[in-house]
Write a structure and sequence with these properties.
heterodimer, A: mainly alpha, two-stranded antiparallel sheet, 74% helix, extended
Chain lengths: 703, 499
């Protein structure tokens, strides 16, 4: 079905139109973006139906590269995994487009904004649809630059520029890992085609790569490289620092980044290559550890944040960590399920937050926000409870057993339940402290963006989708089965109910605890303990990751660069050039000295003197302070010579010669006139002229 | 007429700039000087495009070959011809020519005629270097390129121009004299002939090869430049006038890479294999070192100059990977780097015309007064750090793939150079483009139509190479294959992929 190529094609077309010929659209730029992405969304739904009916489909596009053994064909591949993500991406992007059409009204760079979110949508749809690891990597990078452009959208803000640079560079560091993985994959499998790689993966078990005396299995290394990419794009500890700063972007962009694009790329990539990842148990352990740490870290930091956008950012970090954790324990289906639910919810949360902030007129601190409590509360409730529950229903026991890590079970229960608990607490706390406590304050509210009719509609949409997904979890996992790594097929029904009950109970416990703390802050027994305060300060400052990055990576890089410039480049390399000149002169002086003592012929002395002189001159040329006289004289001479040349060539030839020749002709004519016609002299002159002409012609022809 | 033109296509292409110089001498008035120079360089571009279309990618070896005896006593010929590699570089040279003229349209106000003559001279000389099939011709025009560059730097350059010019000439002379020794040795070794094609496959004893290679290597390494022979480049690039920097960074550096591909690999294969590990590691040092130093710069032009050192490291990395991916990647990288870095120098030149400062600290918030400039500058900065979809990515990625067959550690180190590139470019953008504009910059005029017309062809070029690299690779395939097939020593040394 080649028509599905339009799913990434339409947003790309919108971007190209706006970027190249968009000036005439100006404030009507959304009229290009909205239909394109809307249509793309409709096609995504159609693709979902198509794949559900007929299974995976692939659409070859064009041959991108053909160099030796390397043949890269860009093509689209839509399987169950892809078509589940496509409606999320295009749907959220569509809503963001519609929303931005009003949110961004009056922005001086309205057109650029719509162009870039179009490109962003294209990159993400292409990322999930690509059948080829190289193209996936390219889209991965393009998304990075889109986020850069959107975060720096309000470029006059200093913080926006810094945040944008930070976001891209953190990602660039992490992407070295991914890029390395892509190259390594090609070096290992000789192809970039994902399906071919997955088909060959089991055969490559045991192939190793040696470096520094270590032997590491290639599949494991590839999986770790994928993890490295995911750590950057999906904001996992310790590369998560960019995501909170990404809030400098206009709020609809946050919805796009947190819900539809960017951060989802990590879990998607791991799920896409799950058959390969499953072959590398130690890499999976690393993935699980990173995910678990991030999930807990994000939740704990969320507890301490007071800016609603920051709080949501850390909640995203935590939730994505949860997904990566799920991938690490082999629950790819659950990760994707959570990804979808979280995506729709976060989009909804950000858009409603943006609505509130827009109403109060800015990037407000929590306490100033007015009450628009119900939608947010409902959203938070869903966020806290529903999606993670699915995680507990998977049949991972067999996987762990088969990989000889049954102890993962304990870690899984502890970490997952702790994350659910903390999520419930911070969500409740966020809702209450933001909207519950200070409703009374009178804030001059601007007209609402989304009329009241829109918000519940959106809420219902989100809830409906989530509920629908929750209801069909088993159908969902069955549907997704062909696209993922071979997991043990049967589900353990008995443990499912128990697990759901337990995790739901934990979530409710979290809510109750938060509510209790909120009602009676004084009564909480441990609130005044020293270690609690310390922990609070620590988490309030996000465990000082920003400062650590600055101290460990940014400053040393700059310091090393400056050191290299001042010490190595200027003191050693540049000076060597000068020293060579000095050395030549010194050598010549020695020669001259020995010559004067009478050992060598006086003729050598002359040569040596000459060399000395030349070397001294050379040195003087090379030494910066002394480079004045010789070259300047030469330059002046050259300037003068070239000036003279131009004068000679220009003036005499064209200015003086031509008039002179003209004058000559003039004189001849005058003479002829004076001679008068039909005299002897007249005829003579004419004969002479003809004769000379004839002789000249003969001479020319003869040669 | 048509057949004459077809048979002598390369000679016509070479003649155009030199005939243009003669024509310029008789043109009066700066306006017409500019127009004639523009016309001549556009004609050269037209001819090289014709060459491009007529080039048959399926033929291995040289095409459009013309040979005439020149100095028979020494067996010196006027011999020219193109293969895929030459073709790409000739196109790059003629593409940048008109853009240099256009960029100097108003910024050069004094001695316009001399300036245009120098641009055409260097363009013509470089076309000969890239098409010469005779080592003597190659060397002679290699030397000729130096002279116009020297005058461009010392006559129209920035405040430190004299020192930069002297340094450039001394370095280049040293390099080319060493190269001359190598060329003469080759002449004696291969039966007193300067014919490059005849030299290929001439069995030269390995110890002799190593000596010749070391001389050649120094010549090319200084031109390219490879660390630690690079210290002429930042001065020359930053002090040269805009068109000078564009020619230097855009094409002149590529002569070094071209020399490796045309002389070292085919004629001295055993020595190339011998030297390869050393050169590979030197390239990686160059990539990282150049990147680090670019990070520490406070001068826009120096930043771009050091970034060139870093990017040219990928060229040698690819060439000495000895496989098709690496070498084609190196050529694509040369082409893409010529366009993106040339464009960066053009853009910085336009900015300098307005403000007369190159210091990063003097700028900030340019997005407000100069939005069009900012869009173009950002595109080229992004191309420069290898954003996918743009030419440099294709080149660098192919080079990395080529390198991967020889060891993954090198790939990892070279990739960290890309991160450095992103860091210095984005940091530069942050300081120059983003933020609140200073009062003195508030009223800067945005780019005018002429300046945009100068940059837009390069935007198109960068994207074409990035998105449809087949335009270049189809022209290169058989050439590179031929190059490798004829050097069994090289093919044996490079392990096959997947191992």
């Amino acid at each position: 079905m080649p028509i599905f190529a339009l799913i990434p094609g339409l947003p790309l077309a919108a971007f190209v139109i706006l970027a190249v010929a968009g000036r005439r659209f100006g404030d009507a730029s959304h009229r290009v973006g909205i239909p394109a992405v809307g249509l793309s969304f409709a096609l995504s739904i159609a693709a979902l139906a198509e794949v559900a009916r007929n299974g995976a489909l692939s659409i070859p596009l064009y041959r991108f590269l053909d160099v030796g053994e390397l043949v890269v064909t860009v093509g689209l591949y839509a399987d169950q995994l892809t078509v589940l993500l496509l409606p999320l991406i295009t749907g959220v992007s569509f809503v963001v487009h519609v929303y931005s059409a009003r949110y961004m009204t009056g922005d001086p760079r309205y057109r650029k904004f719509f162009a870039v979110i179009g490109l962003f949508t294209f990159a993400m749809t292409m990322l999930v649809m690509s059948d080829n690891l190289l193209v996936t990597y390219m889209c991965w990078e393009v998304m990075g630059i889109c986020s850069y452009l959107l975060i720096s959208h309000w470029a006059h803000r200093r913080e926006a520029g810094q945040a944008a640079t930070k976001a891209f560079l953190v990602n660039a560091v992490a992407d070295v890992g991914l890029g390395f993985g892509v190259v390594l994959t090609f070096a290992t499998y000789g192809t970039f085609n994902i399906q071919e790689i997955l088909a060959q993966a089991p055969a490559m078990q045991g192939q190793t790569l040696g470096a520094f005396g270590f032997e590491i299995e290639r599949n494991t290394l590839i999986a770790l490289c994928l993890l490295s990419g995911a750590i950057g794009k999906s904001a996992q500890v310790p590369m998560h620092v960019w995501l909170p700063y990404a809030m400098e972007a206009p709020t609809p962009v946050s919805a796009l980044i947190h819900a539809a694009t960017m951060v989802n790329a990590g879990p998607f990539l791991l799920a896409r290559l799950s058959p390969l990842v499953l072959l590398a148990p130690s890499a999976m352990a690393a993935i699980a550890v990173v995910g678990a740490i991030t999930a807990l870290y994000g939740a704990l930091v969320s507890l301490t944040q007071s800016d609603i956008k920051r709080l949501l950012a850390y909640s995203t970090i935590s939730q994505i960590g949860f997904m990566i954790f799920a991938c690490g324990v082999g629950a790819f289906g659950a990760a994707i399920f959570h990804l979808l639910a979280h995506g729709f919810l976060k989009a909804y949360l950000f858009l409603s937050t943006g609505d509130s902030l827009w109403a109060t007129g800015g990037h407000a601190h929590a306490d100033a926000a007015p009450g628009r409590i119900r939608p947010l509360a409902a959203g938070s409730l869903l966020l806290a409870c529903v999606p993670p529950l699915v995680l507990f229903s998977g049949p991972y026991e067999q996987l762990w057993n088969s990989q000889h890590v049954p102890s993962a079970r304990i870690a899984f229960w502890v970490v997952a339940l702790a994350a659910v608990f903390l999520t419930a607490v911070y969500a409740f706390r966020g809702v209450v402290s933001l909207f519950g406590a200070t409703v009374g304050k009178s804030v001059q509210a601007r007209p609402s963006l989304f009329s009241a009719a829109h918000l519940p509609g959106l809420a219902v949409c989100g809830i409906a989708v989530t509920a629908l997904l929750a209801g069909v979890w088993s159908g969902f996992s069955e549907f997704l089965q062909p696209a993922l790594g071979a997991l043990p097929a049967e589900t353990a029904d008995a443990s499912l109910t128990v697990a759901l009950a337990v995790s739901l109970a934990v979530a409710i416990l979290g809510w109750c605890f938060a509510y209790y703390c909120h009602l009676r802050p004084a009564a909480v027994p441990f609130a005044r303990r020293e270690w609690v305060k310390t922990a609070y300060v620590l988490f309030l400052n996000k465990l000082y990751f920003d400062e650590i990055h600055r101290a460990v990576a940014v400053n040393p890089a700059l310091r090393i660069s400056r050191w290299l410039l001042h010490q190595l480049e200027e003191r050693i390399i540049n000076r060597t050039v000068h020293e060579v000149g000095a050395g030549v002169r010194e050598g010549a002086r020695v020669l001259e000295g020995s010559a004067e003592s009478g050992v060598i012929d006086p003729a050598v002395t002359g040569v040596a003197r000459l060399v000395t002189g030349t070397a001294a001159w050379l040195e003087r040329l090379a030494e910066s302070g002394l480079v004045t006289r010789g070259p300047r004289v030469a330059t002046n001479l050259l300037v003068r010579v070239s000036g003279w040349l131009f004068r000679v060539v220009d003036k005499p030839v064209t200015e003086e010669t031509v008039p002179r020749v003209g004058g000559l002709a003039d004189n001849t004519g005058e003479t002829l006139q004076r001679i008068g016609p039909r005299t002897l002299r007249h005829h003579l002159v004419i004969i002479v002229c003809w004769l000379s002409l004839a002789i000249g012609l003969t001479y020319l022809l003869a040669n | 007429m048509t057949s004459l033109f077809t048979e002598h296509l390369i000679t016509s292409l070479i003649t155009v700039p030199f005939a243009g110089i003669v024509a310029l001498l008789f043109v009066r008035g700066d306006v017409w000087v500019r127009r004639v120079a523009m016309g001549v360089s556009l004609l050269a571009l037209g001819l090289s495009t014709a060459l491009w279309w007529r080039f048959d990618p399926s033929i291995e070896g040289m095409q459009f070959v013309e040979r005439t005896s020149w100095m028979e006593n020494f067996n010196i010929q006027y011999a020219v011809g193109v293969d895929g590699i030459s073709l790409v570089l000739v196109l790059l040279t003629t593409l940048l020519g008109p853009l240099c003229v256009l960029a100097s349209w108003t910024s050069i106000a004094s001695k316009v005629k001399a300036y245009m003559v120098l641009i055409l001279l260097v363009e013509g000389a470089m076309i000969v270097v890239f098409t010469a099939l005779d080592l003597f011709l190659f060397f002679m025009l290699w030397e000729v390129t130096m002279i116009p560059m020297y005058f461009m730097i010392i006559l129209w350059g920035g405040p430190g121009r004299i020192q930069a010019g002297i340094k450039f000439v001394l370095y280049s002379l040293t390099g080319s004299l060493l190269m001359l020794v190598g060329i003469l040795a080759l002449y004696l070794q291969t039966g007193r002939s300067f014919d490059i094609q005849a030299m290929v496959g001439h069995a030269i004893p390995e110890d002799v090869q190593i000596w010749i290679f070391s001389f050649m290597f120094l010549g090319f390494a200084i031109k390219l430049p490879m660390v630690p022979f690079h210290s002429w480049l930042p001065d020359a690039h930053s002090e040269a006038p805009t068109a000078g920097s564009v020619i230097l960074a855009g094409v002149l550096l590529k002569m070094g890479g071209y020399g490796f591909l045309r002389i070292c690999l085919p004629i001295l294969p055993e020595a190339s294999v011998e030297f390869a590990p050393f050169i590979l590691w030197l390239s990686i040092v160059g990539i990282i070192y150049g990147g680090c130093l670019a990070l520490a710069q406070s001068d826009l032009k120096k930043l771009v100059a050091y970034s060139s050192i870093s990017h040219m490291g990928f060229v040698t990395l690819g060439i000495f990977a000895f496989n098709e991916q690496g070498i084609e990647g190196a050529v694509i990288q040369m082409f893409a780097h010529g366009m993106s870095t040339g464009a960066l120098f053009l853009a910085i030149g336009f900015l300098y015309d307005r403000t007369h400062t190159r210091m990063i600290a003097d700028y900030g918030g340019l997005q407000k007064p100069m939005p069009r400039f900012v869009v173009l500058l950002s595109i080229f900065a992004m191309a420069s750090f290898g954003l996918p979809g743009m030419g440099n990515f294709t080149g660098e990625f192919l080079v990395l793939l080529g390198t991967s067959f020889g060891g993954m550690l090198k790939v990892l180190l070279a990739m960290s150079g890309i991160v450095l590139a992103a860091a210095y470019m984005l940091w530069m953008l942050q300081r120059v483009v983003l933020g609140q504009p200073r009062a003195s910059l508030e009223s800067l005029p945005d780019l005018n139509a002429r300046e945009i017309a100068t940059l837009v062809p390069l935007v198109v070029g960068v994207f074409v190479v990035g998105l449809i690299p087949a335009t270049l690779t189809t022209k290169l395939d058989s050439t590179v294959k031929n190059l490798l097939d004829r050097s069994p020593a090289i093919v044996q040394s490079a392990s096959a992929p997947g191992e």
